């Protein structure tokens, strides 16, 4: 008898899983999993973002959550087929719980579940108004004194935050806040986005003029409204700024520009926030139930403290405040740092005619943009991927289906191939004195980003300037002190300087929470970002997910949302559903709320 095709094997296993879970037979369900299994759940079972690693953790979760969730109707997703390669069967799946519809991905190894991804697609009875359910827009018929769409929008803008309180306030109107705001708008969750800049997109417009996205367009779409097919592969900062402004308008977001949140506090009895906002010279007090900090990983610049900084006569500033390079055409510039911003600024200063020296204090991972595109991203985020049926939504879920615990195992071969392909490039950099690394376990850029959010540069040209000596380099040293007109390094070298740029990165997002709310709340929540991998700048113990991101925290009603454009798009779906469920009074018992091991 021939073995069943992949569809048959997946259908049989899903039927067995459905039967076991419907009967409440946890052990029968657990027996369907590999010993080294991983179940990553995005909200459906845990009301959390949580990965269960191994059969014991799967068993514990099901014992705690099965009775409440009541999962059913497990099957291969409509219109999809299972596939088999290298002894692994993969399939898109769909299912339901008592309150939601779910979508997911499954890998089978030796006939058992190896990896399982379950995600919440929509809440029953609170579906987004799309397709056949889209709003009419026009009001047919005759009615006296009826309001037009424009008048209704103007009335909403005049009321929300004044005579009517928002359910949710998002602090930060960059791509993260805008993406989440769009999701919440479609779920009819009254939301105000607060942004200190005047216009949406200003956080991009106000950066140095050469800034350009290093991630390709297929990786960077916003929810609902993808970039046009003729959009450039890499978006210039002003173009992305204009797109965000347009997006904010057409998605009808309640976006308060020129509005700075000065303080916030939570009342445990009323279970609501008091958020004080300075808007156009006036103080406004908002009373939301939910507060989302969407200030991004660059909310809190890390400004170093070196001896005698106060006596330096030239210009000095953090890279986030760099105004551009035109005014420094004949200057002697020293850039402290060697990651993305440092490289971009060094290249722009050199192009403007400045004499530039980069001070590299620790090793940096470099990957050439074209190599990253072809070897690291092409399978999921490229024109070829789109043509082969891998939509951005599917790409997001495929990437999400790989558990963080083993993700580095998939990344190491990719970066080994890149090292081999670009061996001459790396040799030339090392001969120039540049200190390279490839991650603590040679797993490359994505793992560095997920673990620590820093320590790398996607090369779009600056590395060549270092390799050929156009940009001078001092590596393996630190700054000892500044004088009136120079930077003194730890090895005694004196660098004459008219400009010092501190490309020294950013602190944990909870530093912003400490400033806005209190140090006590920030410490209650703990460190934001990182996996607990016990690698450089990502201390253990192992978390298995990004600390405090897009999920409940130890402070009720406080959420963190951010990351790159891909993460803002993908995880905004799951954060918006968590907020909607709470607004509608749907029980949301959180399973596996993370413990706090590190304060910042």
UniProtKB/TrEMBL annotation:
Q: Which Pfam families does the record cross-reference, listed alphabetically?
A: Pyr_redox_3
Gene Ontology molecular functions: flavin adenine dinucleotide binding; monooxygenase activity
Region annotation (Disordered) maps to: 128-148
UniProt keyword annotation of Oxidoreductase present: yes
Identify the keywords attached in UniProt to this record, alphabetized.
Answer: Oxidoreductase
Q: Which domain of life is it from?
A: Bacteria
The protein in question is named Putative flavoprotein involved in K+ transport
